[in-house]
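Researcher: I'm preparing a figure for a lab meeting and need a structural model of a single chain. I don't have an experimental structure, so a prediction will have to do for now. The sequence is pasted below. Please return the structure as tokens so I can convert it later.
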Amino acid sequence: MSQEPTEVIHARYGRVFRHPNGIIYVYMADDLSVNVEDAKQLVNDVRQLDSSGQARLLIIQGTRNDLTFEAQHYLGKVHGATHLALVVRSKLQAEVAQFFVSLLQIFRSPYEMRVFHLLQQAEEWLLAVNP
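Model: Understood. Here is the structure written out token by token.
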């Protein structure tokens, strides 16, 4: 069985591609502060790969990166995804991610987000959900 071709988009924030399993993978660059312009570019890139509005995102954090509050606010309200799995590498990233999950609830985000330490667990969750 052949796999469909995968388009990889390279941007300042990192790289993004749609895997043959249907999940959109985002590998964040290291040493990056994601501002609202980066967040908007990320959303546009995801929509380019999956325009259905039902994308399932798997974001793998780089080292020493963060989101500005404006980027968090934008990402908390934007439509286009149903589920987001965030893979963190450190305790600090996990704590910041949990804060972001709380913000999503306050913003009444249109998607569900979970934080994982293992890529395989994040993939399993996203493959099990129905977009």
